[in-house]
Structures are given as structure tokens and as C-alpha cells.
Amino acid sequence: MATADKVMAEVAEEAGRRRTFAVISHPDAGKSTLTEALALHSSAISSAGAVHGKGDRRGVTSDWMEMEQDRGISITSAALRIDYEGRVLNLLDTPGHADFSEDTYRVLSAVDCAIMLLDSAKGLEPQTLKLFDVCRARRMPVITFVNKWDRPGREPLELLDEIEQRIGLRPTPLNWPVGIAGDFRGLIDRATGRYTKMTRMPGGATKALEEVLAPEEAARVEGTEWERAREEVELLEALGADFDAESFLAGESSPVLFGAALPNFGVGQLLRAIVGLAPAPTAKTDAKGEPRPVAAPFSGQVFKMQANMDPSHRDRMAFLRISSGRFDRGMVLTHARTGRPFTTKYTQAVFGSERSTIETAFPGDVIALVNAQSIAVGDTLYDGPKVEFPAIPSFAPEHFVVARAKDAGKYKQFQKGIAQLDAEGVVQVLTSDVRGEQAPVLAAVGPLQFDVVEHRMEHEFRAPIEASPLDYSVARRTDAGSADALHALSGVEVLKRRNDGELLALVHNKWRLRVIERDHPGLLLEPLLAGG
Ligand code: G4P
User: Fold this and answer.
1) Per the CB 3.0–4.6 Å rule, which of 18, 309, 369, 455 could disulfide with 364?
2) Which atom of ligand 1 is nearest to the CA of 33?
């Protein structure tokens, strides 16, 4: 008993040290640069380029898929561990490219907080908005980082206004820039009134030289820029735009920080905000609606599958976020969906694109289970009495193709492959009586997923496919009552989603959808989560 208590106390303490978060941003806002800059502040990685990036900044190359290398992008969502001032920060990678996929969304089901990264010249961009929708649906706390302040951009007050007006998130700046975008002098910490002057270091992404000045000294050095910033800070005070923990944790207000990831300005402040404000892992609600405390026996949910990381081994990995308990490598878990045991002898920690074997892990950490052939996205693994977490929602697909086996003789392999990719959540598989089982419709959030499907069907399942694009871009949930009437309309098709039996109406585009909604208000056309 005493040992069990000791383990529970250890788990609670370790969970309290963890902060598990992801960065949501539009391509080019600076996510890779920020990731490197954050890592520079940790003891784990000491030089830029050690985490994945693009182009020649890519320090660790991944051999997971040729495609990934050819394109120089990361298709996978791994985690980066940053040790900082006694805390463990788990930064989960959200692939943020134009071709992003459901994985990007699913990662958000595995984090406790998001960093919304904005380009100071561009403000809120489409992909950021889509990802923010998922955060909002989960009432997730969001910290905003306005990046690239070393380049010409917009007025800080105008950016705050945009955040409030467009997404209804109340911005509460933690610091305030001195110097307009493009002439970045430093940051005023609103809580202490301290001014940190930034000096760019030659040679790029090293830690910026930061010098703390007293207000009188700052006024002397920065002159009118200081006066202007002080006036704006007074305005914020008058507006009551002050940090408020309760509304932040409820996803209603967002602490905002200004900075520039490339010269590493203000990144230390962001790290301190993550450590100080982002929530540690808390009890996760299970499928019965019961909260499972972090100190309960081991449990976790798979949020991502990755196949063929090593083509010679044909392994299949499941990335699991730990919700409760202590993980010890070698422990035998139970796979909730099948009730079967799952051994964890070869479990690995995920660290950038590298993987290394781990011995123990705690709530908030991500572990990679190898040989996870029977596991699907959303599955729960646990120790002790049974627990199961609710499924991760499927997101609104925007791209659709019809898949057929190139060689009719390979139909069995074709069926098996498509079923497997469906289970892994690589694509959603839709069918209808009209189209038949031999020509299912594959649906995805980003079109890159179809390349992944074609590649894997050919190389892994030995059933090359022909994928013909369909001219739909919107999916809505419907029901049997509306299906016939929808079928009769042009530019609409109703199909059944295999994994959950939902009926989805596919529509050519949102203008056509608006016309249908206007002309047939009685038909059920319900938005799906995000992008719908
Ligand atoms: P992403 O992962 O969000 O797609 O963005 P990434 O970090 O690759 O950054 C996109 C571009 O913006 C890069 O320039 C990067 O150097 C630049 N950038 C990121 N943060 C800052 C910043 O704080 N200040 C300035 N001035 N630039 C920033 P690039 O020329 O497209 O790529 P590269 O050739 O430099 O790698």
C-alpha cells in the first residue's frame, strides 16, 4: 500500500511538472523557427537545427518516407521535449503546411494548451483560423505569440483588435513592444513594468542579448518610442486588458506576447508564460463521463498512427499521450477496444525526428508504441480496471477521390489496404450503393493524404490504385430522412462514412451549399468540426 501511495505521489508530482502544448499557425508564420528558438533555451538541445525544419535548416533527417524527404516537409507529428527550469515541456508537432491533414487536428486532442503563432504583418490567416476552431471546440487555453516583430508589420493595437473581432478571444497582452514592427527595440513586461532591451546577435538564431533597464534609463535610451509604448500600455490598463487566469483556462481570453523567433527576441518570455500559465495535465473525462485523475493507474489515448517509418521492418507505430499513471517500459497494457494485452517492451520516447528507448514516462508525455498493428487512432490503452476515452472526432474533409484497384486481380489486397488506412485514420472511407464497394470514395482534410494512400497501397499492400478526383469541396452531416431529397439535387451526393456510419452530403462548393440551404431549409446539412 505504502508503495502504491508513493507511486501516486510521484505521478502527481511529475504530472505537475509537465506542460504539453502545440503551436497552431499558418505556413510561414515561423513555426519551425520558433520551435528551434524554444529548443535553444532548453538544456536538451543546444544548437539550432537539431529539430526538424525546412530546407538546409533541417538538422535531423528522417528516413520515414521517401516522400517526406523529397518534399522536405514533415508529414509526421512527433513531439519535442524541452527541459526548462525544472519543468518538462512537450511540444507536439502540428504539420502546418498547405497540405495539412487530419493529423494536424488530432494532435490538438493530445495537448493541454496551444500557442497561436501570428505573423505580425499578416495577423490571423486561414489555417490558423481552422486550427483555432478546434481549440475553441475543446475550450482549450490559447497563448498568442505575435512573431516577426523585427520586420515591418501592423500596429499592435490593430492586431489585438483583429483577434477580438474575428475570433472573439479577448487578448490580454503580457508584454508590449517598444518600437514599431520593423524597428524592434525591446519589451515592457506589463506585470512588473520592467523593460528588456533586445540586441541582435550576429549569426542568427542564437539567444538574443537581453538587457533589463529601469524605466528612467529606458526613457533616455528609447526616447519617443518609449513614450509611445508607455501610452499604449496605459491604454491597455484603462481597457482592462489584463491577464485573467479563469477566462484563459476556459479558452475565452488569451495572453499575448510579442517577439521575433528568428533573432530569438521574446522567446524566453514565451517559455516563462508557458511554464507559468499553461495548465499541467489534469483528469481526462472517460467515455462514461467520469474524470480519470492523473494519479490513477496508467491510461492513455492514441492520437496518431505512423506506418512504415522503417520500410525494412514494416513497423507501425502508435503515438500515445499519457493521461494517467506511470509508464514503465515492458509493462503489459490492455487494449480497450479488443480487450487484448499489449506488451510495451520496445516502446520509445519521441524526440524531434529521433527516437530513443525510454524506461518511464508520466501524464502529458508522448510515447511511441511499436508493432501496433492492431491499434487505431483514438484507441485507449490502460493498466488495471478498464477505462476507455471517447473517440477523437473526425474532421470535415475538403478533398475527395474515387479509388479503384489498378489490377482487378488484387481486389483482396485492395480491400485490406483501404480498411487498414481507414482504421489508422489516414483518410476517411465513404461508400454508397450507387458507387459500390469496389470504388470507395476517400476523403481527406488535405490532399497530401492521397499521395500517402497511393504510396502505401502500392508499396505496402501491393495493390496500386487509381485515384480520380471528385469535384466536391464541402462535406455536411445529414440523415436518412434528407438523403433522398439531396440525391435528387445536382452538385450533391450522399455517402456513408465507414468508420462511424455517419451519412455525409458532399457538395461541389460552399456557394452551391448556400443555394441548397436557402431553397431547401428543411434538409439536414450540419457542419462537421473544423473547416466545415
Ligand atoms: P513555418 O514553419 O511556420 O512554415 O515557418 P518557418 O519557421 O519556416 O519560417 C518562415 C520564414 O519566416 C522563414 O524565412 C523564416 O526564416 C522566417 N522567420 C521566422 N520567424 C521570423 C522572425 O521572427 N523574423 C523574421 N524576420 N523572419 C522570420 P524563409 O526565407 O522563407 O526561409 P529560410 O530560407 O530562412 O529558412
Assistant:
1) 18
2) 7
Tell me the three cell numbers of residue 68: 517526406
Atom 15 of ligand 1, residue of closest alpha carbon: 30
Ligand 1 centroid distance, CA of 262 (Å)? 7
Edge-to-edge strand ranges of the sheet holding 354-357: 340-343, 332-335, 380-382, 299-307, 316-324, 366-369, 348-351, 354-357
Q: Whose CA is nearest to atom 9 of ligand 1?
A: 30
- Per-residue pLDDT, averaged over 457-465, amounts to 92
Ligand 1 pocket test target in 28, 115, 267 with most atoms within 8 Å of CB: 28
Whole-model pTM? 0.86
* Per-residue pLDDT, 348: 63
The rounded distance, in Å, linking the Cα atoms of 124 and 126 is 7
- pLDDT, tens only, 315-353: 677 889 999 999 998 899 999 999 999 988 766 655 444
Concatenated DSSP letters of 136-166: HHTT--EEEEEE-TTS----HHHHHHHHHHH
Per-residue burial over 370-405, b = 16 or more CB atoms within 10 Å of its CB, e = otherwise:
bbbeebbbbbbbbbeeebbbebbbbbbbbbbbbbbb
Nearest to 127 by CA among 236, 205, 28: 28
**51 contacts 350 by C-beta, under 8 angstroms:** no
**Contact, 233 vs 190, CB < 8 A?**
yes
- 149 burial via Cβ count (<10 Å: 0-12, 13-18, 19+): buried
- Distance (Å, rounded) from C-alpha 108 to C-alpha 135? 7
* pLDDT given for residue 387 in this prediction: 97
The CA 261 to ligand 1 mean position distance, Å, reads: 8
Spatial separation of the C-alpha atoms in residues 276 and 513, rounded to whole Å: 45
Q: What is the predicted pLDDT for the residue at 83?
A: 82
| pLDDT confidence of residue 423 | 82
Q: What ipTM does this complex have?
A: 0.97
97 is in an annotated binding site: yes
**Average pLDDT for residues 425-435, to the nearest whole number?**
92
For the segment 80-106, what is each residue's pLDDT rounded down to a tens digit?
Answer: 778 888 898 998 877 655 556 777 888
Residues 6+ apart with CB under 8 A from 321: 20, 110, 111, 300, 301, 303, 364, 365, 366
Query: What value does the mean pLDDT take over residues 443-462?
Result: 88
